[in-house]
C-alpha cells in the first residue's frame, strides 16, 4: 500500500491505493446501480427490492418505485425518528411515556395500553418493534412531537431528506387512511438508515420478550417477523398487513459483515412473503460480498488548523463508504482518496471539510463527505505565542 500527498491551492489530497478483495460504496452514488444479471425473484409480490445496506446498491428490483400502501412497515420511519431523537438527546430510554386516550384507542396490532398508563421509551420501542403496537407508536409520537400530526410532519420531512420521492405518510402506524403510501425502494432507503443504529436490531431481531414483566399481568411479545427465528442472520425489520396492502415486509439480515435489505409489498400470504424474502436474501449472500471501508463517524485523520484554538482537528467519515463486489470476479485495484479542503478557524462540528472518494480503474464509484469532529474556534494572541515558543523548542531538540 502506498501513500502520496498532493497539495493544491484549494485542497490537499491523500491517495491510498491497494488491491482489495471486498466491497461497499457511498449511499448516493451507489443507490441506483442495477444487477448485471436479472433473475426471477419475488414472483408473487406487487413490488420488491434487494439492496446492499452498506452502499445502497440495488441488487434486484421489481416495480420498486410503485406507490403502494405499506401497512405497519410504516413503523420503520417511526422507529428511525425514535432512534434519532435518542441520539440527539431529545429523549432518553428511561423516559416515562404517557398513554393518551387517543393512543389507547388504536385498533389492529397493539400492546393493549390503557389511558394514563406509562411505560419507558425502551419498553414502548419493544412494543413497536416486536409486536407492531399501533398504540405504542402513537404514544411515543405524541411524547416526541406533541401530537401524532406533528410527528407525521417529521416523518415526511425526514423521508425527503433521505431521497424518498415516492412517499407520503398520514399516520405513524400504517393503519388504513387516505394519502398514505410509499414504495419498496423508499422503504429500503429508510430501513438502510434505521439499521445504522445498531441498537435497534436488539429489538427488531428479538423473537420474544415481555412487557410489564414484574406486574400481575405481564404481556408476552412475539415478533411478527418469524424469519428472525428461522433465517440465519435475520435481525429485523418490520412486517405489515392490511386488506389493502396485503402482506409486506422490510427485512434485514447480516452475514460475515455483509448486511442486506429486502423489501416486498403486496404479497398474497404470510408464508409466501417469508419464502420470497428468504429467496431474495439467499440470492444476495450467494452472489455478492461487501465490507465497509469507512464507517459513518469513523475518524479518518487529523489535520492542523491554522490559528485554531486547538492545534489539531479530527475529521470523520460523514457516511458509510466502500465497495460492493460480485463473487467470483477477478481481484481488482481500487483507490481511496481523502480530500481535505483548506480549513481556517472557526470550524463548526459537522461542517463539511472535504470528501472520501473511492475509485475503480480511475473512475469514481463512491463518495461521502468528510466532516469536522468538533468545534474549533479562533486562537487568541497568547495561545498563538505559546504555540510558537513551543515549536522553537521542539525544533531545537
TrEMBL record:
It holds the Pfam family Peptidase_S11. Keywords: Carboxypeptidase, Cell shape, Cell wall biogenesis/degradation, Hydrolase, Peptidoglycan synthesis, Protease, Signal. It is an enzyme of class 3 (hydrolase). Residues 1-30 form the signal peptide. Gene3D superfamilies: D-Ala-D-Ala carboxypeptidase, C-terminal domain (2.60.410.10), DD-peptidase/beta-lactamase superfamily (3.40.710.10). Residues 288-378 form the Peptidase S11 D-Ala-D-Ala carboxypeptidase A C-terminal domain. This is serine-type D-Ala-D-Ala carboxypeptidase. It comes from Tumebacillus permanentifrigoris. The lineage of its organism: Bacteria, Bacillati, Bacillota, Bacilli, Bacillales.
